User: Fold this.
Amino acid sequence: MDKKIALTIQDLHKAYGEKVVHRGVSFDLMEGEILGLFGGSGSGKSVILRSIIGLETPDQGKILFEGRDLVGLSEKELFKVREQISYVFQNGALFDSLTVEENLAYPLHAHTKLSDSEILKQVNEMLTLIDMKGSNKLLPSELSGGMQKRAGFARAIILHPKVILFDEPTAGLDPVNTQRLLKNILSFKARGMTGIFVTHDIPAAFEICDRVAILNQGKIELVMTVEEMKSSNSPLVKSFTTGAHIQ
Assistant:
């Protein structure tokens, strides 16, 4: 059975003054897949993610989700969209003054009518799933970098969004913490998680992603499966994979 399209990026253009970032970016994200998004530094990968949830506004183009164009929605409309499309920020983006428990509970308080006891139950279940059981009362400053990222991931998925946007999730992590985070992501992927995975970490992308889209000179130049990418002789592909440890 053919997979359905979860999200469509259609002819996105974006410039900041003289600096043109996107010159007609187009691709589809399919339900139940994780799509890797590769590109050089400054190529506008994160700008695409930020545009999807309304933190940036494209100069031209459409972002279609459940039959609706997300470009130009009001802040109130975007609030509802952000229940369905969640963002995992590069640094975890936890609220410094809130405990781990309060950070994870925040989206549930904002977007649901669950009781405090139901919220605590969901928070505890999530902490168990990300191997952080018992860390409820810790502040972000008391967590390692890896734990901060895992807590940020947990907060992003606690509402069970339909699409998750990962912005360089393994950046700055040592190999052990990278593997812990990838293990957490893979456990949710096994349940049918859909997402876009922006990264420079090629081995991590190969572990997580189903397909890869390469952003080059303001457009998506190539879209291929991970297996196709591993065996590709394209100079553009090789510019990313050379030096990467490919299994």
Remarks:
- Residues 175-189 form the longest helix (15 residues).
- The longest strand covers residues 5-16.
